[in-house]
Amino acid sequence: MSHNRSGLLFLACAVLWVVSCTRSASQNSHVAPTPVLPSTSGLAASSAEYPDTTEGLQNLMKDMLSAAKRGDREMVDALIKRTEFADYAHYFGITYSPDPLAAKEWATPYQQWLGENEDHLRELLETLAKDEDGNILVRKANDDPAPGRGFEWGMLHYARIPIDVYRVTLVFRHLPDGPGESIGYFVYADGMFRWDSIVPFAAPGTYQSDPGTVNVSQTQAVGSAQYPDTPNGLQKFLSELWAAAKSGDQAKVHSMIKQTEIPDYRNWFCSVYVPGSGLSWAIPYGNYLVQNEQTFEALWEKLAQDEGEIRVQSRMSHSSRTPLDIYDADWKSRTGARDEWIGEFIYIDGMFRWNSTVHRAFPSRVRVSNGVIDGLVEHRTLPKYPEAAIRAGFKGDVIFKVVIDETGKIVRSEPVEGQPLLIATSMDALRDFRFRPYQFSGRPIQVESQIGFHFEVKGKGDKAKGKVEYISTIPYHPEFGRATH
């Protein structure tokens, strides 16, 4: 009996030694050491139908395309639905960060754009189904990541556990503008290929983060000589912008604001922030850039009517991959007018760039015209300011496009701009809003409106405190017109 026990003990030790060696080899083959993590269903075994191989994903995409060719939209929708994450925040938390707030920040844009992105993929498949010479190519990014520190590189490099990343290329031979390609990314999780739709299908190179044709040294040299990377440098630039607005030189104001655009913004956000999180900034930046710049010009027209001073403070952002110098600028009036926060600026390629995703100048008061009687807020709840957002220095305006029905209830809300973490907490607050119904000719009407919250951080470090203010609505009715302000 003693010999049997000794034999079993030896066998158990041998098995543990083999498992330990296998795990060590698996970890060493990855781009970064794998920490001890809780188990995740994301590492479930491959499905028999679509195994975790290049051929498995190729078969899934071909099944989608075949269904599109047959006109079987129900099957296309069903296959696309299977690629959704059951819980994207959980997947991100296990794979990239244990911080639940960071996971929520990723999950917000995933859910926000999921339906729109799936509609786009369906349209691409329907277009490809009509292209006799079209094709679908699948490549495993683990074997050969795309050059530069783009999305593929980031997904693999920052993963805390080994993951399989696949790149799918839809090849179009007969488009109106000639041949073209559209690229998207899939990972294998929960026994199925999941489309990481936070990066929608796009032209090749869209999410690469190498500088491309930009001559960085040249632009830095020119910018540094004129406006050095210091608080005084930004103050000088903004003072010239204010002087141009005060003199009525609208052309110069417009030109100077255009200089503050982030060049190649998709690549910049994806290279500075973890991919996915970077896109949650890049997408609204690009979508609302023109609109935000128009409002920014209006802000300088307003400041030109006032007398005051521009104040600039610098801080360090640690939410990026590497520490990033951030400059905050605000306007201190000498006439008793309301002080204005001008915005957040980052020095990129030799110039101060306005991060319009964090702030957009927004009117504080509105007056309803065209016969529409204002629907005043009867009940509201201000958003909670997440401690993580305060520590990271996230501030500025969060703007929503909403629909207010005849009873004064918000029946639909859509984020227009704002930092994702602040958007999430603001959406929770909107559920408690109630308005006195808007009226026209004595009857309640449904209106579209914009609602905003302004988030402000005072102090630094452990002494930092957050403050949230409500921004008045700007109602609009398709038939009766828009409010003026």
Can you describe this structure?
With 485 residues, the chain is α+β, with helices and mostly antiparallel strands. The protein folds into three domains: 155 residues, no CATH class; 139 residues, no CATH class; 111 residues, TonB (TolA/TonB C-terminal domain, 2-Layer Sandwich). Helices cover 39% and strands 23% of the residues. The protein has a four-stranded antiparallel sheet, with helices on both faces. A four-stranded antiparallel sheet has the order 5-6-7-8. Helix 4 crosses helix 5.
Give a nutshell description of this structure.
The protein is 39% helix and 23% strand. A four-stranded antiparallel β-sheet has the order 1-2-3-4, with helices on both faces. It has a four-stranded antiparallel β-sheet with strand order 5-6-7-8.
Ends distance: 92 Å
What kind of sheet is the major sheet?
Answer: 4 strands, antiparallel
Major beta sheet, strand line-up:
1-2-3-4
**Helix content, binned percent:** 25-40%
Q: How many domain units?
A: 3
By DSSP, the count of extended strands is 19
What is the global morphology?
Answer: globular
Provide the β-strand percentage band.
15-25%
Q: Which regions are unreliable across 5 or more consecutive residues at pLDDT < 50? A: 1-44, 210-224, 359-373, 476-485
Please count the helical segments.
Answer: 14
Output the structural class: alpha+beta
Computed over alpha carbons, the radius of gyration is 26 Å
> How much is the average pLDDT?
76
